[in-house]
């Protein structure tokens, strides 16, 4: 029996949940569902807090409060760690664009570090970006089995699909199994 870690790209997972029309999932149930009778070292959740201007509007304040509640909920779960990047705001010809900064790098560094230190034998990744491929290659070379959990909409990059040892589809049935109980937060 080995030990595994889960690496969740919050932006990608949020897109999956929006497409599936499910907003309230239990991250502990998610962690247990992918366990495969192994010990979970930790579930890492990578994201950015929402953009808040220097003179925040009520909508921005409410988004920040919701994010803070969500983060606190995850922080209070056993063996969970929230890792935050930052949201950059750019003005383009098409309007204002928001871009996450440091999120992919944080995930990649954690995956490589845990793999090289032999703290995990299996990595469960919920992401869709090919930027993770070099980190996945290092993990696999270190003997870690890398499993990608993904949706078909949004579909992950083909290079990411090819780089992983195993692929599992997150569909509506999967999401229904990890929904929060209506009586519990």
Compact description:
This protein has 185 residues and is an alpha/beta fold. The chain has helices at residues 10-20, 27-33, 58-75, 103-116, 133-141, 158-163, 172-177, and strands spanning 3-9, 39-47, 80-84, 86-92, 95-101, 122-126, 145-150, 166-169.
Question: Keyphrases for this structure?
Answer:
Rossmann fold, 8 strands, 6-stranded parallel β-sheet, alpha/beta, 7 helices, about 180 residues, two-stranded antiparallel ribbon
Question: What is the secondary structure topology, with strand pairs?
Answer:
Layout: E1 3-9, H1 10-20, H2 27-33, E2 39-47, H3 58-75, E3 80-84, E4 86-92, E5 95-101, H4 103-116, E6 122-126, H5 133-141, E7 145-150, H6 158-163, E8 166-169, H7 172-177
Describe the structure.
The structure is a single chain. With 185 residues, the protein is of the alpha/beta class. The chain has a single domain (3-177), classed as 5'-nuclease (Rossmann fold), CATH 3.40.50.1010. 38% of the residues lie in helices and 27% in strands. The chain is built from 7 helices and 8 strands; from the N terminus they run βααβαβββαβαβαβα. The strands form 2 sheets. Strands 3-2-1-6-7-8 form a 6-stranded parallel beta sheet. Strands 4-5 form a two-stranded antiparallel ribbon. A hairpin with a 2-residue loop joins strand 4 (86-92) and strand 5. Helix 4 runs parallel beside helix 5 (133-141). The longest helix has 18 residues, at 58-75. The chain is globular, with a radius of gyration of 17 Å. The chain starts with a strand and ends in an 8-residue tail after the last helix. 26% of the residues are buried. The mean pLDDT is 92.
């Amino acid at each position: 029996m080995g030990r595994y870690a889960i690496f969740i790209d919050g932006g990608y997972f949020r897109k999956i949940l929006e497409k599936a029309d499910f907003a309230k999932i239990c991250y502990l149930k998610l962690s247990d569902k992918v366990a495969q009778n192994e010990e979970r070292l930790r579930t890492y959740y990578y994201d950015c807090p929402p953009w808040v201007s220097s003179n925040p509007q009520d909508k921005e304040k409410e988004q920040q409060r919701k994010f803070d509640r969500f983060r606190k909920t995850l922080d209070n779960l056993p063996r969970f760690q929230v890792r935050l990047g930052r949201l950059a705001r750019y003005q383009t010809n098409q309007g204002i664009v928001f871009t996450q900064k440091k999120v992919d790098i944080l995930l990649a560094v954690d995956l490589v570090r845990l793999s090289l230190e032999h703290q995990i034998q299996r990595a469960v990744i919920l992401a869709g970006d090919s930027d993770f491929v070099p980190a996945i290659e290092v993990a696999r070379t270190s003997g870690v089995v890398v499993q990608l959990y993904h949706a078909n909409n949004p579909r992950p990059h083909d290079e990411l699909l090819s780089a992983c040892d195993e692929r599992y589809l997150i569909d509506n049935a999967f999401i229904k199994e990890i929904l929060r109980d209506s009586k519990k937060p």
